[in-house]
Amino acid sequence: MRNWPLSELSVTTPRLQLRHPSLDDVDELADRAAEGIHDPGYMPFLFPWSDTTPEERARSVVQYQFRAWGSFSVDSWTIELAVVHEGRIVGVQSINAKNFPVTREVETGSWVAQRFHGQGIGTEMRRAVLHLAFAGLGAHYAVTTAFEDNHASLGVTKKLGYKEDGIALHARGDKPVVVRRFRMAREDWTESPGFAIHNLDRCLPLFGLSS
């Protein structure tokens, strides 16, 4: 799309491509969500969007993507990158920020369709979005959160070297649960070999940045 530079943005790794989704990609993402993301009875997300029927999960993915596109601004933005493994979309890696030119802080989140769990995809896609944040956008900090019983997400976070950044209480259904927050400073980030960012320069003004 000539008038939407983000449509050409992507990050590649030894195994994955993370790309701004096309309309066909959005459809495939919706299919992955409909197939299932986590075990029934467990909710890894602060907003329980996945606790519904497969059809509703699929529609919510489509609607969320369109909201992210439509609300993008220098002051507040979210990018939901489709994660492609062996030619198939397997999940989403998001990155968002508020007042980024001032704060230089981003937050990340993700999901991977359940049938692709346990293959190291979550770790590699997080490395990829950190590469985009630090090497591409010049972020100073990256933060992430997870419930204290979300062992998969916590495992990725610890593996990549984040530091503890406090806790909060969240109502998950009718029970309180601890949310753990983590922070990585640019000086603590280690660049991974074989990671590359594509077509970022034309996107930089959308973030309030110059090339």
Give a written overview of the molecule:
It comes from Nonomuraea maritima. Residues 24-189 form the N-acetyltransferase domain. GO terms for molecular function: protein N-terminal-serine acetyltransferase activity; protein-N-terminal-alanine acetyltransferase activity. This is Protein N-acetyltransferase, RimJ/RimL family. The protein is an alpha+beta fold and 211 residues long. Helices cover 29% and strands 32% of the residues. It has helices at 23-35, 54-71, 100-103, 121-136, 151-160, and strands spanning 10-12, 16-19, 76-85, 88-98, 105-112, 141-147, 163-172, 175-185, 196-198. A nine-stranded mixed beta sheet has the order 7-8-6-5-4-3-2-1-9, with helices on both faces. A hairpin with a 2-residue loop joins strand 3 (76-85) and strand 4 (88-98). It starts with 9 loop residues before the first strand and ends in a 13-residue tail after the last strand.
